[in-house]
Amino acid sequence: MRDTMVKINDRYEFPLQLDLDRENGKYLSPDADRSVRNLYTLHSVLVHSGGVHGGHYYAFIRPTLSDQWFKFDDERVTKEDVKRALEEQYGGEEELPPTNPGFNNSPFKFTKYSNAYMLVYIRESDKDKIICNVDEKDIAEHLRIRLKKEQEEKEQKRKEKAEAHLYTIIKVARNEDLLEQIGRDIYFDLVDHEKVHSFRIQKQMPFNVFKEEVAKEFGIPVQFQRFWFWAKRQNHTYRPNRPLTPQEEVQSVGQLREVSNKANNAELKLFLEVELGQDLKPVPPPEKTKEDILLFFKLYEPLKEMLQYVGRLFVKGSGKPVEILAKLNEMAGFSPDEEIEIYEEIKFEPNIMCERIDKKATFRASQLEDGDIICFQKSAQVGSSDQCRYPDVPSFLEYVHNRQVVRFRSLEKPKEDEFCLELSKNHNYDDVVERVAQHLGLEDPSKIRLTSHNCYSQQPKPQPIKYRGVEHLSDMLVHYNQSSDILYYEVLDIPLPELQGLKTLKVAFHHATKDEVVIHTIRLPKQSTVGDVINDLKTKVELSDPNAELRLLEVFYHKIYKIFPLSEKIENINDQYWTLRAEEIPEEEKNLDPHDRLIHVYHFMKDTAQNQVQNFGEPFFLVIHEGETLAEVKVRIQKKLQVPDEEFSKWKFAFLSLGRPEYLQDSDIVSNRFQRRDVYGAWEQYLGLEHTDNAPKRSYAANQNRHTFEKPVKIYN
Q: Tens digits of per-residue pLDDT, 667-683?
């Protein structure tokens, strides 16, 4: 009836006992076992509450087939009586008790949207096999093990949660972590604290006792351990700041955590300094005075585009970099007299700050302090910088900071990643389309058009990016305050700047005699008029007569809202939401008598549920003559639409104004209804053809549902 999914809420009764042997077993399948008694008892009722587009399931079950029913609704289980499980799930309508008893007011009825969806019956003769106790031995072993493990994990988590306030997490970063992470997981600062070893320690434990735990874990005797606090600097970097004092080491772990972080989170972050002697065995840490500065060193290799951590050193504030060059060359594996450049990595948010250090100035003069990072590299040979993309430390860090892997998708397949490119957030519009064109093997990058991604809907934005319409890649990837890594591309047949000067319209051409619709893409300069569109269309379509005249209509939800004047500019015409329809102007409309009227004719159905009219199908114009009866008009409509007699006899005809139908008799004079010529919104007064919509539902490229007796659609782009 409706050609759509519907949930049927009609009343449908079901019994507590179901006898399938009755009437000589006519409800049993031919191969059913007739030797057993096919008497079934209701065990459970699955209920669906809601409509076809959404709802909720719950169940009434009597686990042992006793008289006691239970309702299982998500995690809530309640006792229920048999009436709730049976009769209230039959569906149908429910009456509300009258508000004023004694008065003769008709009861208010409403449809029940909760009703039985599936029933489970158990055969009486088999119920002992089915309804039996389940012991632990009945559960498969792998499930028992899994359930036990889950219980234990749950218990452990509960315990940890209950005791969390008694413990502190201590995260200990070591030289090994820096070696492993820098140049692989991270490039800036020294370590990702999420990936270092963590200890869960009781807050009461003295720090000295904790050091014994560390000795056990890392195999480093207590006397060779020295711990440093980390500190967040004003420029948002995070560096080792100072060693713990002997007085602090006798305090409890909980007290130290409060000293170390003002943010008052539950963690204590430390750096473990271990000095190694000549034989690579731990030795006691050197004495640290105010004059000593702890520096960390990273080596950059331009040809390999590689950054790695090579170690740390104590230097004197009054010393100079020149004095440690031989040591740095040794750390890097270079010859002792290799020329090297040194830089300080100062910060990386929001921008990179990395400056060359004067080798002849003192460390103090260069404002170096504990926890600072020095990056160094071989001095560039003359001409060698041409072979490297990033010849020095600052350019490499800039690249790493701004690099962005972008997932490109074809706009035609917006769900599938097609290829990835590594780009820079600082790339401008031309850089990005050039790289895409290069990847696609396309000579002209201006034929690439890009569209940004909407992070909320996970779809392409409706409007593509204009030619050079954004400064940088970072602007293309931003959606409100969110950033994505997806861009959509399409390859155009003409360069984008040229296309932007044109207006593209999709026009559905309805052939005068053939039963078909052809969709054409018309592309004209923006200052063109509707007349130009029609002239262009005439060269592409098959006309019933070489001299036929065309018109362009705006059709929306099966009503005609406008005939476009030939002089109207096309720049502001929107074909996104409504269909632009082109058709030949019939001869009879060209020579209208002064008393003839051109009226709108639409198909409609009455939607009883919502008590309103629903239009469908293709609307059209019709000339009606002075004094013409409905019977005469019907003959012309039937001929125009080519509807068989049997079908047409079921149609009803009505005059509709603002959605209210007045049904017409064959003898009614149609023109009398359409007297007012100046009515605003002529589309709201029309001759309605009431009948069912037999058209197969089909999505239609010009964004409209199609009409009865759907015409085949062809698309020409």
A: 888 887 776 554 445 55
Q: What is the mean pLDDT of residues 406-426?
A: 91
CA distances from residue 274 to 48, 192, 285 in whole angstroms, order as listed: 67, 19, 7
Task: Give the pLDDT score at 242.
Answer: 92
Buried b (16+ CB within 10 A) or exposed e, 432-470: bbbbbbeeeeeeebbbbbbbbbbbeeeebeeebbebeeb
Report the C-alpha gap between 477 and 406 in whole angstroms.
9
- Residues in the chain, how many? 717
**pLDDT tens string 196-241:** 999 998 889 999 999 999 999 999 999 999 999 998 888 889 999 9
pTM passes above 0.90: no
Are the C-beta atoms of 412 and 449 separated by less than 8 Å? Answer: no
- Between CA 358 and CA 605 the distance in angstroms is 86
Q: Are 285 and 276 in contact (CB under 8 A)?
A: no
Better-predicted residue by pLDDT, 100 or 318: 318
Whether residue 154 is predicted with pLDDT greater than 50 in this model: the reply is yes
Q: Cα separation of 176 and 157, whole Å? A: 31
Residue labelled with tokens 């500019």: 569
Check: CB of residue 436 under 8 Å from CB of residue 448.
yes
- CA angle, 39 as apex, 33 and 43 as ends, to 5°? 115
User: Which strands form 267-273's sheet, in the order they lie side by side?
Assistant: 197-202, 167-173, 267-273, 226-232, 238-243
Taking CB atoms within 8 Å and a gap of at least 24, the contacts of 278-281 are: none
Which amino acid appears at position 265 of this protein?
N
Q: How many CB atoms lie within 10 A of CB 689?
A: 20
- DSSP code of residue 456: T
Is omega for the bond preceding 350 within 30 degrees of 0, making it cis? yes
pLDDT digits over 24-61, tens only? Answer: 889 999 898 889 999 999 999 999 998 888 889 999 99
Q: Cα angle at 284 between 281 and 287, to 5 degrees?
A: 140
The reported pLDDT for the residue numbered 101 is 58
**Interstrand relation of 459-460 and 453-454 (parallel, antiparallel or unpaired):** antiparallel
Owner of token pair 């830089």 = 343
Look up residue 330 and give its two tokens. Answer: 């040794």
3-state secondary structure of 19: strand
